[in-house]
Amino acid sequence: MVHFDHFLDLAERPLGTWFGALCTAAVMVAVAIGIHRIGARILTRIARPYPLMSIVLRYIDKPALVLLIILGLAFVIFEAPDTLPFILVLRDVETVALIASITSLAVRSAGAVGEAIVQAHPLDREDNLDARRIHTQARVLARSVMVVIVIMGFGAALMVFPSVRQIGASLLASAGVAGLVAGIAARPVLGNLIAGLQIALSQPIRLDDVVVIQGEWGRVEEITGTYVSIRIWDQRRLIVPLQWFIENPFTNWTRNSSQIIGTVFLYVDYRMPVAPLREELERSGAHAPEWDGRVQVLQVTDATERSMQLRVLVSSFDSALNWDLRCRVREGLLNFVQAAYPQFLPHARADLSSDKDHVDFAPPLASTPAGAMSPAQASTVDTPADPVAGRGELDKPDPRIHTTKPEAPSTSVKNKS
What is the pLDDT of residue 407? Predict the structure, then answer.
C-alpha cells in the first residue's frame, strides 16, 4: 500500500543536490506563474461588473505574482536538507523576501482600496463637497495604514536574525532612555502622522479646497503622509507640513461651500450720480455668466478729500468664477463712467482765488527790484531761526527793509552828441 510519506520521499530526493534543487525551483516558478494567470483571468471575469473590485485586482496583480513565486521557492528551500551548502543562509533570505512580498501586497491592497473609493466619487461635478471630503479621508487614511504596514513589515524582517533579537533584548534595560531619544528624534515624523489622522477625521482642509496661506492663494493639490502641496494660481507649488495646519490659522474659502462674495472698489468725483451706476451694474450682471444671482450691491462706503469710494459686492459659485466676475464688473463700470460721465472721474482740487486777503504766498521774484528784498524775506531775516540775523543789532530796524523803490528809468532816448 502506497502511503503519503512515500510521495514526500520521492519529492525530497531531487533536493539533495543543487542541480536537483534548481530544477525543482524552476518547476515551482512555472507552476506559480500558471496559477497566477489562471486565477487572474477567473477573478477578472468575476469582477468585470464591479468597477471597484477591478481596480483592486489591477493594483495587486504584480505583488500577488511575486508572492506566489516566492512561496514556490520557499517550498524548495525549506524542504531541502540541512546538509546542502549555504541552505541556512538562503532560508533567512527567503524569510525576509517572503515578509517583504507580504508587506508589499498589503501596502498595495490598502492603496487599491483608497483609490477605488476615490474613483467611486469623482470631483467633476457641480457640487463636489462630499466627494472632496471622501477623497481626503480615503487618501490620508490609506497612507497612514500603509505607513503602519511598512513599519510592521520592517520590524518583522529584523526579527528574523537572531543577533538583532539579542541586541533588542540587551536594550530592554535602557528602554526608557532609548524611548525618550527615539521619541525626540521621531517627533516630526510622529507629529505629521498624528496631524494627518486629525486632518482625515476633522478635515480642516480637503483636496481641491481653496486656501490662503501666508498671503498665497491656491488650491489643495495633494495631501501626503508628511506634507500638503498647494497649487498656487501662477502654477507654483507651496509645500506645507501637515502639522502646520494644526498649529497655525489659515483661510479656507471652501470649508462649507464654494460660494463666495467678491468686492470691487471704484473712486469717482463727488458729483457722480450713483443711480446710473447701479443700473449699469444690474445690466452687466444680468449678462455675466459668472454671476450666480445671489448678491449684487453697489454702495458708497467712504468719502475722502479727493473722491468718494464705491464698493460693489457680487457673488459667484466659486472663487475662480468670482475673480473673473470682479474683473468684468470693474471693467464695465469704468467704461461706463468714461463714456457717459467722464467729467466725474477723480480730480485734484486747489484754491486759486485772486482775493488779496487770502493770498498767503510771496509775489514772484521777478517783480522785486535788484537790491531790494521781498516782504517774505524781510519777515524771516530777523527770526531767531536765521543764523545770520543774530549777528547784527536786533533793536535797530534794517534799513534795507525801508528802502524806497527806485523810480522807473525814463523812456526817452537821448541823442548821441
Answer: 45
